[in-house]
Structures are given as C-alpha cells and as structure tokens.
Amino acid sequence: MLPVAIASCLSAAVFSGDVGAAQRETRIPDQAMTTAAQLRETALASDLGYRITESLTTQVGPRLAGSEGDARAVAWAVAKFKELGFDKVWTEPVTFPKWERRSESAQVLGAHAQPLHLTALGGSPAGTVEGEVVRFADLAALEAAAAGSLAGKIAFVDYKMERARDGSGYGPSGKVRSRGPSAAIRAGAAGYLMRSAGTDSHRNPHTGITRFDEGLTPIPSAALAVPDADQLARLLALGPAKVRVALDCGWDGQYTSQNVIGEITGSKKPNEVVLIGGHLDSWDLGTGAIDDGAGVGLTMAAGKLIGNLKQRPARSIRVVAFANEEQGLHGGKAYAAKHAPDLGKHQLAAESDFGAGRIYAYSSSAPDHAKAADAQIAQALAPLGIEHVPGTGGPGPDISPFAEKGLAWARLAQDGSDYFDLHHTPDDTFDKIDPKALAQNVAAYAVFAYLAASAEGDFGSAPKSE
Amino acid sequence: MLPVAIASCLSAAVFSGDVGAAQRETRIPDQAMTTAAQLRETALASDLGYRITESLTTQVGPRLAGSEGDARAVAWAVAKFKELGFDKVWTEPVTFPKWERRSESAQVLGAHAQPLHLTALGGSPAGTVEGEVVRFADLAALEAAAAGSLAGKIAFVDYKMERARDGSGYGPSGKVRSRGPSAAIRAGAAGYLMRSAGTDSHRNPHTGITRFDEGLTPIPSAALAVPDADQLARLLALGPAKVRVALDCGWDGQYTSQNVIGEITGSKKPNEVVLIGGHLDSWDLGTGAIDDGAGVGLTMAAGKLIGNLKQRPARSIRVVAFANEEQGLHGGKAYAAKHAPDLGKHQLAAESDFGAGRIYAYSSSAPDHAKAADAQIAQALAPLGIEHVPGTGGPGPDISPFAEKGLAWARLAQDGSDYFDLHHTPDDTFDKIDPKALAQNVAAYAVFAYLAASAEGDFGSAPKSE
Predict the structure, then answer these.
(1) Which residues in A lie closer than 8 A to residue B427 (C-beta atoms)?
(2) Which of B232, B284, B431 to probe by mutation at the A interface, max A CB count within 10 Å?
(3) What pLDDT score was predicted for residue A2?
(4) N or C: less crowded end of chain B, CB within 10 Å?
C-alpha cells in the first residue's frame, strides 16, 4: 500500500456519478440476493483464497517491481487465472522506472560501536555517509530546521507511529517517509534516517517509496527498525553519536511489467464489468503476503466462486492484479489511462490492499439513485460482521486514479490493527495470514461483486466533466 | 543460555552438602527477616536493575565472546561495579577459542528462487554449499538416515519448538542444534539446516552454539528463521528444492576475556560469600538484553541495594558477570577451577540466565539441616508471588560446573513463556524488558542473597568426595 492514496479521493468521487436527476433507481433482484446468501456460505467454507495466496507467496516469493520476481509473478497470475477457469485472461503493459536494492548496512561508530538494522527507502540513491546524527521528534521539527544547519550531518526523524484499526496512524508516518528526505536536504543533511513507519517492536525495518522534490540532489535515505530507532535515541541521549550508513541501491532504466486480468463473463451485459483486485508486486524484503498477495488471492477466489455459479450475474467480473502499486500506482494509472474510454462500462470497483484482516465496514461512492442497491449489498454483507458506514472511506490505491476520473468505487474496510506490524518488512510472510479471516474477505468480495454485477441500474460511474 | 546445562545437575547436587549427621540446623535471625522485608519493598520501588541493563545493552550492545564488544563489556562491568560502590572489584581471566561471524546468506535456486533468512550456528565452519534439501521432521529421523544417503545434499531438520513457562521445549530443540550437524555428517550431508529453536514467527533466526563429534569433518550449519523454515517446507511439499547456503564464519585462535566480580563485604564473615550473577557475553545478533544483560543488571542491582543497607549481612555478597557462557560455560568453568579450594566458603549461589520475566518459583539444593532456613527464604520471597517448590530445578548454567563439585545452589525460576521468542536473535534488545518484572527479579535476588548471607549456619556447600 502506498501512503498517500488511501484516503485521497473521497470528496472528489462520492457524488461524481450523479449525472441525471431523473435517473432510474438502481435495485438488486430478490433472486440475486438469495444467490448471494448461498455464495457467502460457500465462500466461508472454502480455502481457495488462502491457497491462491499460498501459491503466489511460496512459488514466486518477493516480487519487487521490475525484478525477476515481477516477471515470474506475471507468469504465475496468467497461469493461475487460466487454471481457475476464468473465461478471458490477458495482460496490459505497465512501464515504469526500475529501482533496485543491492545491499544496506549501518553502524554506530566510536565508543559505542554497534550495528543498526535499517533498510533503504524505495527511490533512495546509493551512497555511504558518515556523520553525526541529529534527532528530530517529528517531521515538523525537521522542516523547521534552518537551511544549512545540518551540513555534513545525518537527520533522524524519530516519530512513533500509532496503532489503529483503520490504519490512520500511517498518514503522519507515511509523510515522514515521503517528505522527510527532501526536508533533510533543504537543511543541508548528508543522509536521512527515520524510525520505521511501523507499530511492531521487531528488528525488521519497514521500507516504502520516498520521493525527492524537484531540484534537490537526493541523499541516501533509510528507515531504522523500531528497536534500532529506540537504541539510537538512547545513545543520542548520552551524547553525540556518529553513524555510518552504506546503501547500494538506485534507479536503473525503465521496465515494462503487466497488469494481469482475468474475467468471468457476464450472462446479459458481458461488456459491463465489476472490477475487483489487488496488486501483484510487493516489496522485496518479505514475500508480500499481507501486501498484497492476500488482495490478489482473495479477489481471484471471489471471481472464481462467482464463475462456479450455475446462474452467472448479468455483468462480467473482472479481477485485476495490478503491476507496481508500491512505487507510485503505476498499474492503477496505466489501467485508468487505457480504460478511460470505457469508464462508463465499469459498474463498480473495489480493491483489497490493506492486509488479510477481517472486513468490518462497507461503504461506497453510490449516488442517490443507487443508495437502495448499496443498502442491499450492505444487507448481504451484514452476516459477515460488516457494518454499513455510508459516506466514509475512499477507493483503494490502484483504483484511485480511475476514481478521480469518475469511476464508482466501494470500500470493504479490513481490520488493520496489526497490518503495520508487518507492512513492508521481511516479516510480511504467508504464515501471518489467518485462513478464517481470509475466507471472510473472499465471502465479502464475492457477495459484493456478484450483487453489483446483478443490479438493475448503475452505481454512478461516469466520466467527470473537467 | 546454553542448551544442555539448565537441568543437568539436580540429582548430583541436591544432597551433596550432607556431610555430617550431627550438623547444627541453619537458621535465619528474625532481625534479618525484618530487614529483608524492607529490602524487598525498596527493590520493588527501584529502577536500578533496569537502568544497569539499559546501560550495558545501549553502551556496549552486542558482545560476542572474543569480540571487541567483549572487551568493552569487561571494561563496562569493572567501571559499573566501581560506580555502584562495590567494596572490591576484580577480574579473573577466562581463555577460550574465538569464533567469528562475518557474513551469511541463503537462497532457494531455480524456478522458485528467493532468499532465505538464516544464521550460522556458533562453531560452524565457513563454506558455500549448493544442494538439494532433504527434510526431516525431527532429529531422530535424521539420526536414522543411512550413512551416505545424504551425499551432496543439505539436511534440514524441521522440528517445531514448543512454548512452555519453564522453557522445557528447549531441551529437544537444543539437541537439534547440538547433535543435528554431526548426524547430518554421518549421513554424508554437505550442509545442515534447522528450523530455529524458537517459539516466535518472525524473520529473525536463532543462533546458538553447536558442536561436531570427534573425528567428523564439520560442515556449514545454520538455523533458518521460523517463517523461512515454513517456506522451505512448503516448497519441498511441491517437489525437490535446491538451496545455496553461504557462510563466512569460523574459529580463529584463542582469546582471553575476564570474569568480572564485584563484592559487597560482609560484616562478620567477609571471607564467606553468597554468589549471584549472570553472564556478560551475548550472541552477536542482538544486544543481549534478555540473554543475559538482564541477569547481569538485576544481580548487580541486588548487590548494590544490599550494600546500601545500614546493617550489612554477615557474609559478603559476590556478584559475578561471567565470561563466555554462550559457547561452553567458559566463565563458569574457569570460576569453578580457580575457586575449587574455597568451595566451602561459598554459602549459596544463584545465577539469573533465563530472561527478564517474573520469578514464579524458588528451590535450592538445601540439605536437611538447612531446610528450615530455606523455608525462611521462601517465606520472604512469597509476597513477590514466588512459590516454594523444593526438590525441583537445578543450578544456572555458569554455576553448574561448580555445583558439580559440591557448591550449594538456589534457583529463582523466571517465567520463560516468551523467552524463546527472542533468545539468540537480533530481537534480543532492551525494549523487550518490562521494568516492573525486572524490579521483581531484583527484589527476589536481593532478599535471597541477603538472607543466605545472614543465616546462622550453612547450606551444604562442601567438596564432593570423588
């Protein structure tokens, strides 16, 4: 998951579909509600989503965008869609700059010499810097540092992320990652360190993309594991501390990966689609289980279970495994650009990219004429312990570029209380996934997608007037 | 903590002190019981043990026996004893072979290529091996493998350690580490992998010493992090898997470290001592907080708090920070060898080397004539939530060589439910210590040592007849 996208599009998108006042009210037929209830129970009893996630994270493992694992993940997804019997399977190219991590290390120097565990932020340049560390309690403190005041020094933002079910603690911590390096450069720093944007206490640092503002010369930038940030803070409380940071990483040309798409063909309006999906790429440190193997696995499984129904829904179910979400929503942007002409054929879209915890809330951008159908979906989700919270949330990261153009979206909010214990760390591995929670997710996505695809009427997807 | 020592000496030592049938019964004076109760409350309100542990783990950090950190730890301990006002501070040399870890990595090769997180076992030779992995569910299965059956292959023992308050799960898991490599060599293996002897689910492998039986040529031997053992097992379930293991590590000559000793002089029998302590060395991966910075910190604090009393106990309190426990009880053996002539001057000894969890049980080797005094100690410990469990347990690792010669010992059993989540991993860091639990430990050791040093009569320490 990317820091900035999660809640970015709500205000722009919520009412974007209200194009005609006299529009017919959208409704879901009773028969579809009955079928959805059966589908829900079938999905809860199935381990398909869990097994697909196991397959991706085991057989491919890490799949950093542009890496050899990325290419294997694309081949895996194509093969998996076909194996599952999706009616159409295809890929769409996604081109982006390629960033590589080769090695990284850090040591406290001098009388208290010891290693520190850190990881380069995505987008960091290579470089070895040695310097006295200057600690800042938060990003605002660093941003207030005078130009040149950190010359030859290493800036360290020691902001502690807060745990929250909805992941709201990631907002300020994500900014420490995305904006901290540029602030450090403006103050003259030679290197940038941050306490990991994480809620754990393990020696596994959290990576994630950063960026450097136009006109600045990038500096080596990395995140310390939480215990190492604690340790550095303790050492700094004793007196000046000098640290050596050695990063070998950087950008290396362009790479073309693929959005991989599988479709279950609808029975009456096959050219209209309900889109669900996750992102296929991961960070390199773990095996991308909660971020976002689970999202891919559970939406593939939901599509497959809908495909198994005797009576297909009216519209097609399109499952998208997006390329390179982590480094800038490249797959989502490519999808939005390519499919802009058929935006109106997208009934409703939902992306799963917040782990594998139970879904606890449902919301969507449904306009007034679709609110009754939206409530019907919520009613079918309620037995899964999912609350209807209209007017909250926003689209998942990879559908947000399309949502900005007018795509109708839904949000199936996962419990992310533990998500940032693992997010972007080596610890993001398959063993962390609870199969029962994942089955609940599959059930929710299957019910949601089936009902949206069965609705008579639309959910307001329509190109926005600029 | 070393695997083999924890419960090794009970049967030999329990009654070793019963040298004379007409011996006078040992008793603790009422005034000492009153003072001990005050000492207990003072210790519970103090953060001294926590602060000493913080100082060692922060300022020295990792202190692998024979490393530069080892030398700094010795200097730290000498300075800390002096700073705390111990009456006598000295060192005693401990010589041992030096083992170094330089680098380590592993990858699955072929269609499912991906890195695996592992760490060399202490004592492993350097080497790079590539081979097909053969999985064994436990040590017995590997030991049953026919000679030559693993030629050119890598043996992998996938035994899962069980969690237990008393750490009993470490017995069988420790054997996988100590005996597995030799069993693998006998079957012809080129390399040895084991699931970490740990109860966590984090990507931090557990190191620890291994050994190779006489006459065998050592092979590269390492422990996979628990999630990586899971991953390798899943890959092997899919078909053959080839792995590359590259370890750069090994023995490099002899090194002389020091047992560091501080003494609070007794008021009436200064030449008799109650010995408490922990071990000063740690593994290199973490900062040795629970293993065994806490043991050093809490026993130093207990000694200091006794030293603060207006009325000193009759005997001296000797706090020993033992050298190189991890690689074979070298400090404990050196202490036993050097002090064999004055074994009878050692009233009673207890070592803390099982983390920083609350103490829940007390036992000792007290012979019949000291059982009343032993019960008095237990009575003074009871308000700390400590149960008296006579006839159980054994001496801590570093006092076990001396206990085998006849030293009377006590055991203050810590809750180790979480100990093997962290033990011998990078995650053994100061942030894992609960200050309240550590203060309870300090209180227990202070009460214990003070009362044993105040007793009229002995606890049965006497050289054993061979």
Answers:
(1) 202-203, 227
(2) B431
(3) 46
(4) C
Which positions in chain B touch A226 (Cβ < 8 Å)?
431
| A62 neighbourhood in chain B, CB within 8 Å | 114-115
- pLDDT by residue (tens digit) across B402-453? 999 999 999 999 999 999 999 999 999 999 999 999 999 999 999 999 999 9
CA distance A130 to chain B (A): 19
The neighbour count for residue B270, using CB atoms within 10 Å, is 16
Whole-angstrom distance, CA of residue B245 vs CA of residue A24: 66
Helix (H, G, I), strand (E, B) or coil at A308: coil
Determine the distance from the C-alpha atom of residue B251 to the mean position of all C-alpha atoms in its chain, rounded to a whole number.
22
Asked if the model's pLDDT at residue B2 lies above 80, the reply is: no
Cβ-defined contact of A227 to B431 (cutoff 8 Å): yes
* CATH number, domain B101-251: 3.50.30.30
According to the model, what pLDDT value does residue B14 have?
A: 40
Q: Where are the domains positioned within chain B?
A: 10-87+265-454, 101-251
Are residues B431 and A230, on separate chains, in Cβ contact within 8 Å? yes
User: Across chain A, what does the average pLDDT equal?
Assistant: 95
Structure tokens at B3: 């695997």
Homologous superfamily of domain range B10-87+265-454: Zn peptidases (3.40.630.10)
Tokens found for residue A148:
């040149």
ipTM field:
0.94
Chain A hits for B62, CB-CB cut-off 8 Å, are: 114-115
- Residue B8: pLDDT over 90: no
CB-based burial of residue B459 (10 Å sphere; 0-12 exposed, 13-18 middle, 19+ buried)?
buried
pLDDT digits over B339-396, tens only? 999 999 999 999 999 999 999 999 999 999 999 999 999 999 999 999 999 999 999 9
